[in-house]
Specification:
Distance between the termini of chain A: 43 Å
Strand content of chain A: 25-35%
Low-confidence stretches of chain A: 1-24
Largest interface: A-B, 48 and 48 residues
Oligomer: homotetramer
C-alpha cells in the first residue's frame, strides 16, 4: 500500500509494527469466550528462569506473558535442580519476588510456585499458591508434599508421559492422589499430548492441566491460532487468586494444545456454542442454501459430518467467517446438521458431537 | 508448534490455511464500529473487469470482495474505453448481470454502475445505482450525465488529482456540481490521496469517496491493517440499496486509505470513540499510572500529545492493546490527556483532536 | 526496526514491499540446481483463461508466472468447453497471441497449447508445441490427436486420477500410448497426487508431468517452499522451445508438488547432491560431532535414518542451514550416514536413499 | 497447498516450520557478498546478559546469533553497572566463559569483551579482544583504558549521540583518540543513526561501528531484510580472531542499519557491484528495452536517477529480480544509466553514485 503526496521528497521507512512489538508494548488479546457464567482466564502455570534451568530473567516471563495475552502465570523453578548455582546462589523465592512488580504493572496475576523434581517415577510436580517455597526443599518427596499441603497449595503432576520407558501410574501416585497431594494432571506439557494422562484425568476426576514448561526465551510476538504456547483455559468467578484456586480444585479447565482443545464435554461444548455464529442462509436454488458461519475464537474448529446433510469436513477458521453450500429439505423450517468437532477432544479418541442449526424460515 | 503422538508413522503436511483461502471460502471481517445509530458498510464502488480494461472475469470481483470482507461493490467498467473489444464485444450491462448470482450467494450488495470517461479535464466519473448502462453511451458528456440522472444515479468525480498537468476545478465541474450531476468526489483513488479534492469536498459539501479502481486481480487473501484496498466506509440505516444511496447523498462516509481515515469530524470522532477503550489504570508509584488502551478497529491509531500529560506519540495498534506509563495529578479523580489523532484527517492538514479520559478513582 | 533521525517531524509510512509486489515488478527466483549438465527450467504447462473456463485475461498468466519465478508456461484452454462463449466468441489461438508480447518482455518462454477435453474415460489431454489450435477442434478424439501429432505436438494425459469412479487405464489409453499420442502423464495435477499414474509412468516410461491447472487468479506474491503452484522441473540443454521439447520427449522431468519432489531416481539424486552441502564438523567431545548441512534448494528435505548413526529424522529446511549432533567412530576418517529422503519419491511408496558423508579428518 | 491422497482418514497438522525454528536448529544465512578479496563476516560486538543489565543467560546470545546467521559476537556486559548483583555476584569474565562451549559448537567466533561505562560525557566504550576483564574495573577511566590497551584491545565509542543534551566531542575524546584508546566509533547503535559520529569517523579515520546493544531476548527467528539487528559487516582475510582485529584496526567495515548500509565509498561500491547483476535486455520496440536486475544481497537497494535515462526511482528488492523498461539510444552498443544508491550512505547526507551498464549488442 503506497500513499503518494506532493512534496514528499525524502522517504522515511518506519517499520512500525516491529518497533512497537520489539518494545513489548502491544499485545493482541487471546479470543476464547467466557462461558457458563464464568470468566475464561488464559494461564501458563509452568515455566522456568535462570534461577533453575531456564534461560531468562524472571521479569522476561511477565513481558512474554503480557505480549502473548495471558492473564495468569506461575514461575515454577526446580527446587532440586539448579545448574546455574555456581553463578546464582539458590534462593527459591527470588523469581516471584523479582517478577511481582512488573506483573502488577502489566495486570498479570502472578502465582508463587515451584517444581518438586524427582526421578521418574514418580516424576515432577508443580505446587502453586505457595507463600514460601523454602519449606518444600526436603529430602523426602512426601515431606515436600506435606509442606506444600500445609500452605494449602494446589499440586499437579506435570508430564506423566515423559521418559516413556519409565512411565505409568505407580503406587506413589495413588498415595499422592489419595492424600490430595495431586489434584491435577498434565494432559499436555509443552508440545506433547499424553493420552494416558487424559484417560486418568477422566477416570479419577483430576483437573486437566497443560502448560508451556518454557525454558528458552519465548519467540512469539503474539498469540495466534497457528503459533501459541500450550496453555490452560481456567473458568473462574473473577480474576483473583482465590477464584483461580477454586476453579482449579473444581476442575474447571480446558487445555489449548496446538490446534486442539482438550477438556470435559460441558466446557468444550460451551466454548463451541459461544464461539460459533450461524447466519440466516441464502437460498440459491430449490433446496440449496449458502450458509456463513463465524468463528469468534482463536482456534480453527475442524468439524466432520456425522449425519447426512452438509459438507463432509469443514474448517471453521479462527476469527473468520466460513461459507458453504448444502442441500436442505425445502419444506423444512430448520435444518440440523450433525457433526463432530474433531479437534475438541472430550476423551483421548473422541471428538465433541455438535449440531449446527440453520434457520430456514 | 508440534504435536507428538504415538503411532504417527506417516506425516501428512496440510497447509490448511492456504488451502482454505485458495478456495476463497474463508474471510476475516473488517473491524470498524457501527456509529451514531448507523451500520458501517465497507464499500468499493470503482473497479474494472475484462469488459473494459480490467484483467478478470466479473465474478472474480465478487470473490475478492467477499474474501476481503467487503459488504458492497460496484463494477464500473468504462463506457467509452474497451481495449479488449476485438475479443469481447461491447455489452455495458454484462459485468453486472454475470456477477449478480455470485454476489447474492456471497451476501455482497452489488450495485450496477459504469465509468463515464472523458479526457482530463473534465476527467472520469462513476455513475452508480443505474438500471441500464446503455443510455449513458453518448457522444456528449452532458447527455451521459442527463441519462444517468434520469435513472436517479449517484455520480462522483473519480480522481481529481490525476494527470497533475491538467488538474483543477473547471467550469464544467461547476456545471456538473450545480446540476447535482456530481454529488461526490474522490478524496482518494487507489493508493493516492488528493488534498485539493478533500478541500473541495469540505467547501462544497461533496460526499467524500475513495475506492480501489482495481484493474488487476487482487492479491490480498484478506483485509489487514497493513495491506488493504482503499475503500469507503458508508454509514447506513440498513444494508440495502436505497439506504446506501441515501447515505451517499447525505455524505455519511469516511475513506480508509493506507493508514489513514479521511472524513468529516463527526464521523471520525465517533469511530475513534467506539474503537478505543481505556482500562482502569494501575498506580505503581505516587503519581505514576500504567494505562492499557484497547483499539478494537482495523486501523493503527497514531496519536500525538497536545497537552502536557501522556507520552509524546503513541500508536494504538489495530485489534490490540497498548500499554503506557504516565504521571498524573495524585489528588485528581480523573486525568484528561489531550491528543490529536494524526492519521484521522478532518481536513488536508488537520488531524482529529481527542481527549483520553483516565479514571483515577 | 526503527530509524530515528533529527528533524523528522512528519512520518510517512511506505509499505514498500507490498507496493513493489502489487505492481508485479519484483520476483524471487525459484531455487533448484542445474543438474547433470542440464539447465533446470521451472514450467507450468497447464492453465486456463477467460477464453475457456478460466477467470483471467491471458496476459495475467504471464504476470503471475514472472512474479512466481517460472521460466516456461503454456496456456491450455479447453478446445471443447467455453462457458463464456456468449461474451467471448471461440477463438482457440487468441490466448497465445494476446499473451506473447508480454511473455517476451518478461523473458517467459510461452508455448502454444490446448486442452483436448473428453469425458472420463478417456479424460483430458494437453497438446503443446502447436502452431495452430484450430485443426484439433474435431468430433473424434483420435482426429484431434492426429491433428496434434501432425504439428509434432507433445501430448500428455492431465489428471488420470480425476473422477475416481471412472478412473483407470483403458484400451483407448493403450491406443494413444502406442501411437505416441500420449508421451507424458500427470503424476500430479493442481494439489493432487496420483499414485497409479506415477506407477504407469515408471512402467511405461511416460514422462512425468505435474502442473497447476489454474483457473482462478493466482494469489501467490512469490514462490516459497510453503506455498507454490505445482510445477514441472524440466532439465534442458538450453532455454529454448526445441530443447524443452527434447527434454519432455526424453522424460527429463521432476514434479514439485507441495513438499514433495516426484521423479526418476537419477534426477532426484542429482538434485539432492547439488542442493545439500555438509560442513566440516566440530568435535565437541570424544566421538561427538556437530554438523551443519546447508540446503540451497527451495524444498524442505525430510530425511529419515536407515543406518545406525545420526538423528532419527531431520528436516533440512529450504534455503537454510540445519545443525545436528551425532556420535561417530572416533578413529574413522569419514562417517557415512545412511538416510532416505522421504519426500523425494522415486516410486509411489519409495523415498530416495542417500548417504551423508562427514569428513572427520 | 493441499496434498490429497487415498486412505488418509486422520489428518495430522504439523507446523513444521515453527517446530524447527523453536528448536533453534535452523538458520537462514545472511546474504552479503565477499568483496575485494576479503570474506564478509556479520558481527555484533555489543550485547548484554544477566551478568549486567541484560535479560538472558549468556548461551542465549550464542543461540540467537546462530539463528540469525551471525559469524561473530562479543558479549560486552557493563563493568560498572550490575543491577542484578544481589542475585548474581559480580564476575566479569563469566559471560564469555559460560558461552564459549556453545559458541564453538555453533561455529560462532566469540570475542571476550566488556563495556566501560561512564556518565556522558565521555560515555560508554566497548573494549574487545580482552584476555581478562577484571583489570579494567578501575576508578579512573584512563586506568581502564590503559588496562585494556595493555591487553591490546580494540576500543570503540558506543553511542556518541546518546543523551542529546550532553552529546559532543570533548577533550577526553581527543585524549582517547590520540592515545589510540578509541579506534572505532558507533555510527549507529541499536536502531539509531548518529550523523555526527559518521562525520567524525570520516574526518578522523575512525572505524565505523554499529551493533545491536541488545538487552532483551531477541525475537527474530531469522535475519530478513525487513527485520534484522543492527550489525557490522567486517571484511577479513579469514574467519579468525587475529584477522578480525586487523580488519577492525584497518577500518574495513560497513554498518547495516534498518534499510541502510553505512560505510566508506570503496566498500559500499564493492558490495553494490557484487550484489547486482544486470541481464541482457529484451528490445520490445525501437529504443525500448526491458531490463532485469537481480539483487543477490539481503538489502533492498534504493536507487534514484541522476542522469537522463532510466526510471526515476527504483527499489532493487533483496534476493529478488526487478524488471523495468527504459528508452535507450537505438544505435548504441551500451547504455550507461547514472544513479545514486540512496540507502548506501558514504557520508551523512550522501548516497553512493553508481552506473548501471546495459549491454545492447
Amino acid at each position: 500500500m503506497r500513499i503518494k503526496q506532493r512534496g514528499v521528497l525524502f522517504v522515511v521507512l518506519v517499520h512500525l509494527l516491529f518497533a512497537a512489538l520489539a518494545a513489548g508494548q502491544t499485545k493482541r488479546e487471546i479470543n476464547f469466550p467466557d462461558i457458563l457464567g464464568y470468566k475464561t482466564l488464559k494461564c501458563d502455570l509452568h515455566m522456568h528462569t535462570v534461577f533453575s534451568d531456564g534461560m531468562v530473567w524472571p521479569t522476561v516471563r511477565v513481558d512474554e506473558a503480557w505480549r502473548e495475552g495471558l492473564d495468569v502465570i506461575s514461575i515454577t523453578d526446580h527446587i532440586e535442580y539448579q545448574p546455574h548455582k555456581q553463578d546464582i546462589p539458590t534462593n527459591h523465592n527470588r523469581p516471584y519476588d523479582i517478577a511481582l512488580g512488573r506483573a502488577r504493572e502489566r495486570n498479570i496475576l502472578l502465582i508463587r510456585g515451584a517444581e518438586i523434581t524427582r526421578e521418574t517415577p514418580p516424576g515432577h510436580f508443580n505446587a502453586i499458591f505457595l507463600q514460601d517455597v523454602n519449606p518444600l526443599d526436603t529430602e523426602e518427596l512426601t515431606d515436600a508434599m506435606k509442606a506444600a499441603d500445609k500452605q494449602d497449595a494446589f499440586i499437579f503432576w506435570n508430564h506423566p508421559g515423559w521418559k516413556p520407558e519409565h512411565k505409568g501410574w505407580f503406587d506413589i501416585h495413588t498415595t499422592l492422589y489419595e492424600n490430595k497431594w495431586m489434584r491435577g494432571i498434565g494432559v499436555a506439557n509443552g508440545d506433547t499430548y499424553y493420552p494416558e494422562a487424559h484417560q486418568w484425568a477422566l477416570e479419577k476426576n483430576l483437573t486437566m492441566m497443560g502448560n508451556s514448561d518454557i525454558h528458552q526465551p519465548a519467540l512469539e510476538r503474539e498469540t495466534s491460532p497457528e503459533n501459541h504456547r500450550t496453555m490452560i483455559l481456567v473458568f473462574v468467578r473473577e480474576k483473583s487468586v482465590p477464584a483461580l484456586k477454586d476453579a482449579l480444585v473444581e476442575g474447571r479447565t480446558a487445555v489449548w494444545l496446538g490446534n486442539q482443545l482438550i477438556g470435559k464435554r460441558k466446557y468444550l461444548r460451551a466454548i463451541f456454542k459461544k464461539s460459533v455464529e450461524i447466519s440466516k442462509p441464502y437460498r440459491s436454488y430449490k433446496g440449496t442454501v449458502w450458509v456463513e458461519i463465524k468463528n469468534h475464537s482463536d482456534i480453527d474448529i475442524e468439524i466432520g459430518r456425522v449425519g447426512k446433510q452438509g459438507p463432509g469436513t469443514l474448517t471453521l477458521a479462527a476469527n473468520a467467517t466460513t461459507i458453504f453450500k448444502t442441500k436442505v429439505d425445502e419444506a423444512a423450517e430448520e435444518a440440523e446438521l450433525s457433526y463432530v468437532v474433531r479437534n475438541f477432544r472430550i476423551a483421548p479418541d473422541k471428538g465433541l458431537p455438535v449440531s449446527l442449526k440453520i434457520d430456514l424460515k
